[in-house]
Design a protein that fits this description.
Number of domains: 1
Number of strands: 6
Structural class: alpha/beta
Shape: globular
Helix content: 40-55%
Order of helices and strands: HHHHHHEHEHEEEEHH
Length: 315
């Protein structure tokens, strides 16, 4: 994020940020950046690296145009009118093969790594719920990448006790994939039978941005605004196409979170939010001082009124 802000001339030394970490729910050990042996199970093949000077931005290719066309037709190909899947067995196999984490999450499987009596889904959601609750007195921006965007959406629509989120940013998100849209819709329909599409989370109070690179194969549907309805505040998702410039050893990965976090589009969103938050914190501080002074003045006034009544001669 600092790299992205610096690139748009908005350098910030301090960004109030907390990572909601949940990989340990599904995995025994994290990847180890100190391991250099590519054959080691904990080797990290794609570490963070700053963008190289003069790095060439990828251009729109014929393949990208084909992927864009396929993405625009996904709903018609895979979803029935009632939002159920046309090829449920095929899509379940697809998730099982290519999205192991999603399979564990949606399968609501037990969790042998942490607490066996809780499902992986419950434990993962609880991490985010706890973090949001800790910051309920602040303006909150939530950033959800890849599967994290699904977890974020679920928490924001299913848990009324959490505070509102000022800005939601999803990036590299599979929220537009028919298999995901269908699962979300059918789960929500149990409680809201009249919905036609999944709504934007009601807990989002200001903006929901969805950022994707058109070469990102996880975010295959890059225009998810037609998959979701406005929430009761009139807020729906705003799709933003970006160029994810992550590259390591000459290999690009347009799904990598590092590249998304330093895009100028996301940096602009971060800068706007932090500027508004600073202004709001100043106003809240001013209001707190003003209210304290007003309470003190009221107490002094009350004391003098009581004293004056005590000084009056009896009738």
């Amino acid at each position: 994020m600092r790299e992205g802000l610096a690139r748009i001339g908005k350098t910030r030394l301090h960004i109030p940020f907390e990572l909601v970490y949940w990989a340990d729910v599904l995995y025994d050990e994290p990847l180890d950046p100190s391991i250099t042996d590519p054959s080691h199970a904990l080797f990290n093949p794609e570490p963070y690296t700053e963008v190289k000077p003069g790095q060439v931005v990828r251009t729109v290719t014929f393949r990208k145009k084909i992927m864009r066309f396929i993405g625009s037709k996904l709903d018609k190909i895979f979803l029935k009118d009632d939002m159920t899947l046309k090829f449920e067995g095929l899509t379940n196999k697809f998730i099982s093969k290519y999205f192991h984490d999603l399979e564990a999450y949606f399968g609501d499987s037990s969790n042998p790594v942490q607490e066996p009596h809780y499902s992986a889904k419950e434990l993962i959601r609880k991490r985010l719920i706890d973090a949001l609750t800790r910051y309920r007195k602040y303006e909150i921006m939530v950033i959800g990448h890849s599967m994290g965007s699904i977890i974020t959406y679920d928490v924001l629509v299913h848990y009324p006790q959490i505070p509102e989120v000022h800005t939601l940013v999803t990036m590299g998100s599979p929220l537009g994939l028919p298999v995901i849209v269908s699962r979300i819709y059918l789960e929500l329909k149990k409680f809201k039978p009249d919905i036609k599409k999944p709504p934007a989370p009601g807990k989002v109070s200001n903006k929901w941005y969805n950022i994707s690179d058109e070469d990102d194969n996880v975010a295959l549907d890059h225009s998810i605004s037609n998959d979701y309805e406005k929430n009761e505040k009139g807020i729906n998702v705003e799709d933003i196409n970006v160029c994810n410039d992550y590259e390591f050893n000459g290999e690009s990965n347009p799904h990598k979170v590092y590249g998304y976090l330093r895009t100028p589009e996301f940096a602009g969103i971060i800068d706007q939010f932090l500027t508004e938050e600073k202004r709001n914190l100043f106003y809240m501080g001013f209001k707190s001082i003003r209210d304290s002074l007003q309470r003190a003045a009221d107490k002094i006034k009350k004391i003098f009124q009581e004293k004056n009544r005590g000084d009056q001669p009896p009738v």
